[in-house]
Each structure stands twice: as C-alpha cells, then as structure tokens.
Amino acid sequence: MILEVFRVVHRLSFSRTVIVALVAAVLAVGGAVAAQAQTAKGPSGLPLPRFVSLKSNEVNVRVGPGTDYAIKWTFKRQGWPVEVVQEFDNWRRIRDSDGAEGWVYHSLLSSDRTALVAPWRSDPVPLRAGPDDEARVVALLEPLVLARVESCDKRWCEISGKAWSGFISQKTLFGVYPNESFD
Asked: pTM of the full predicted structure?
C-alpha cells in the first residue's frame, strides 16, 4: 500500500517533504487500525478475538448462529480450547486448533484458560521446572495434551494437568496468543 501511495504522489510531482509527510500519515493510520483490531470488542463487551474453553463434554458446533442451523460437528471434551472470532446475539463463532470454524451457544463456553500442546507438531515438547530454556525438564508432553493455563508472561506459560505442572514455551501452545500475558 505504501509503495502504491508513493507511486501516485511521485507521479503528481510533490516535493520530497510532502511525500515523506504523506507516507508518515499512511503509516500512522495503518498502525492505528492494527491497534484497534487488537482491542476490538464484540457485542458482549469482551475482546475479539479471544480464547475460551468448552464448558461441557458435548458441544455441538453449528453452521450458523441458531438451533435451526445444522450441526457441523460435536466436540466431546470439556476444557478444549477454542478461539472466539465473532459474536452474534448469544452465539459465538469459534475456531479450533485445526482452523475449522462454526457457531456455539455462549453458555457452552467458559472463560477458563486451557491450551493444547503444539497440535501442529509430531514430536514431544519439554515441560520445564522454571521459565527458562536451561531449567530442568520435568516431562515431555506429546502434541495435543490438554493443559490448564495458570499464567503467561509473553514468553513462558505455567501450565498444569492432573499429575504434572511446569513451564512451557508460549509459542508451543494453542490457546494463548504469542504476546499475551496474564496471571
């Protein structure tokens, strides 16, 4: 886009100062749009997109926002993380770790934070005793292991399961954003 603006301005024979000012304005507007997209709120007042988890062991995902729409598939695991990407009335359009999308009734979702360990990988991921690449490895977690997310600091997340807990690189989780931090 910037290159296109430069070409148009150049053809109109504006001075170098005017060109620099126009490019700076385009960059500022682009940055503001990007910042707004990251802080967008849905009709519920909650951020979009955001990660949530499934509240029930059986959750129907529909092709549209209503019970009149056909069921696309059914999740069979409570706590599974999904990303809310759109809202319509009491329905939430969700995306799973495979990128599949569909609509779920809002009361079937929980704000509890969970994550899947590296669903895109085939090799185990180290779970460490502390938030450091040199910390002792306490377990090797297979891809698709479901974990409760206790906290994240933009680089490491503290996660736990029934018989384990530790720290894992944030970039190896589906259920948290790369630069997200929370306690």
From this structure: 0.78
How far, in Å, CA of 44 to CA of 165, rounded?
33
Yes or no: say if 38 and 31 are a contact pair by the CB < 8 Å rule. Answer: no
Report pLDDT digits (tens) over 128-177: 999 999 999 999 999 999 999 999 999 999 999 999 999 999 999 999 99
Return the amino acid letter for 51. Answer: F
Q: Which residues of 50-83 are buried (b: 16+ CB within 10 A; e: fewer)?
A: bbbbbbeeebbbbeebeeeeeeeeebeebbbbbb
| Statement to judge: residues 99 and 127 lie in one domain | no
Q: Which residue has the tokens 């630069």?
A: 179
* Residues in CB range of 134: below 8 A, 6 or more apart: none
Beta bridge partners of 16: none
Q: Which residues constitute the domain of residue 148?
A: 115-182
C-alpha triplet 151, 155, 156: angle, nearest 5°: 45
- Cα 43 to Cα 142: distance, rounded to the nearest angstrom: 37
Instruction: Clarify whether residues 54 and 29 are in a common domain.
Output: no
- What tens digit of pLDDT does each residue of 27-69 get? 343 433 334 445 699 999 999 999 999 999 999 999 999 999 9
Which CATH number is 139's domain given?
2.30.30.40
Are the C-beta atoms of residues 55 and 75 closer than 8 Å to each other? no
